[in-house]
Design goal:
Blueprint lengths: L2 E6 L7 H12 L4 E6 L7 H12 L7 E5 L9 E7 L2 E6 L3 H6 L5 E6 L8 H16 L4 H4 L1 E2 L12 E3 L2 E9 L4 E4 L3 H8 L4 E4 L5 E2 L2 E2 L12 E2 L6 E3 L2 H11 L3 E9 L10 E3 L9
Parallel strand pairs: 1-2, 1-3, 3-5, 13-14
Antiparallel strand pairs: 4-5, 4-6, 6-7, 8-9, 9-10, 9-16, 10-15, 11-12, 11-16, 16-17
C-alpha cells in the first residue's frame, strides 16, 4: 500500500483539493494520502521549498510526495519524478525540486504530457498518480519516463557573510508567529567564533542572547531561540506584526546579525518573493 503526500498552493476554498484526491483514488483505491499543506502562497519558491523539505524528511522511506506548486508558471511540456534519499518527489519542471533538496536529486526522470491535452491541475495529478501506480506495480523508473533529462534548477538562498556580520532573509512566519530565517546553526556558530552578537530590529531593538524556549524570557521581551532543527527565530507579536505586514505585500526584509567589535546599520534591503529562488531552511 503506497503512502502519498500532497502539497499545493491551491487553497481550501473550492473543490479542487478533493478532486485531486478523487483522481488519485480512481487510479488506485489503496493509496493512502496525507496532506502537508494547501495554503502555500503562489509563486513563493522559498516558502514552498522550506515547507516541503521539512515535512518530507519525516516520512517513511519510499513515500511519494506530490507537489502541486507553481504548476503553470511555464507551459508543462513534462513533469518530473525524482528519487532522492529513499523518497520520491513529483513536481513541475520549474526549479522547485533543487530548492527542496538543496541540490540535485540522485535520479530524475521526465514524465511526458500529451501535447493535445488540456493541461490543468487534475490532468497533471493523473500523470503523477499513474507514474506512482506503475512504480507500486513493479515498473522501474527508467521504464516509466525519460531518463537522464535536463531540468530547471533554482538555488536556495544562502546568507551573506562578512568577517563581523551575517545577513539573512526571512522566509516564513509560522502559525505561532515564529520567524524562520535562512541562517543555520552551523553558519551562525562558524561566523560567530564564540563572540557575542546582536540582532538589530526596527526602532533599534536588540537581541543579544540565545534562549531555549518562550519561558526563558519575560513577557514582552524579544528573544533569539535555539530551535535549530527548524531554524526558527521566535519573537513577540509587537514586532511580528511589522514583519507580517511587509511579507503580505510580497516583500521580505533582511535581518543583520552584528558581531562584537563591529557596528553596522540594519540592512534595509528587501526582495520580491516572486523573484527570490533560494532558501536554506
Amino acid at each position: 500500500m503506497a503512502l502519498l503526500t500532497l502539497t499545493s498552493d491551491i487553497g481550501q476554498q473550492d473543490y479542487l483539493v478533493g478532486a485531486v484526491k478523487g483522481q488519485l483514488f480512481q487510479i488506485n483505491p489503496d493509496f493512502t494520502i496525507a496532506d502537508i499543506s494547501h495554503q502555500l502562497p503562489p509563486f513563493n519558491y522559498p516558502q514552498a521549498a522550506y515547507v516541503c523539505r521539512n515535512a518530507i524528511k519525516n516520512f517513511p522511506a519510499f513515500t511519494y510526495h506530490i507537489v502541486l506548486v507553481n504548476l503553470f508558471e511555464q507551459k508543462p511540456e513534462r513533469l518530473l519524478l525524482a528519487y532522492h534519499r529513499e523518497q520520491y518527489i513529483l513536481c513541475a519542471d520549474n526549479g522547485l525540486l533543487t530548492m527542496i533538496l538543496e541540490g540535485k536529486p540522485e535520479i530524475v526522470i521526465g514524465l511526458p504530457t500529451d501535447q493535445n491535452a488540456i493541461k490543468n491541475t487534475l490532468y497533471c495529478t493523473g500523470i503523477m498518480g499513474n507514474a506512482i501506480n506503475d512504480l507500486v506495480n513493479g515498473k522501474s523508473l527508467q521504464d516509466i519516463g525519460i531518463p537522464d533529462i535536463s531540468f530547471s534548477e533554482k538555488n536556495h538562498l544562502r546568507p551573506l557573510l562578512g568577517d563581523n556580520w551575517i545577513e539573512g532573509q526571512i522566509i516564513f512566519i509560522d502559525n505561532f508567529e515564529n520567524v524562520i530565517v535562512n541562517i543555520t546553526k552551523e553558519a551562525f556558530e562558524e561566523q560567530r567564533k564564540g563572540r557575542s552578537f546582536k540582532i538589530v530590529f526596527k526602532r533599534d531593538e536588540v537581541i543579544d542572547k540565545v534562549s531555549e524556549t518562550y519561558a526563558d524570557v519575560t513577557e514582552g521581551e524579544k528573544r533569539f531561540a535555539k530551535t535549530w532543527k527548524s531554524k526558527r527565530t521566535p519573537i513577540k507579536k509587537s514586532m511580528i506584526l511589522i514583519m507580517t505586514s511587509v511579507i503580505s505585500n510580497a516583500t521580505a526584509p533582511s535581518i543583520s546579525f552584528l558581531l562584537e567589535n563591529m557596528v553596522l546599520p540594519i540592512s534595509k534591503s528587501a526582495y520580491k518573493n516572486t523573484t527570490v529562488c533560494q532558501e536554506n531552511g
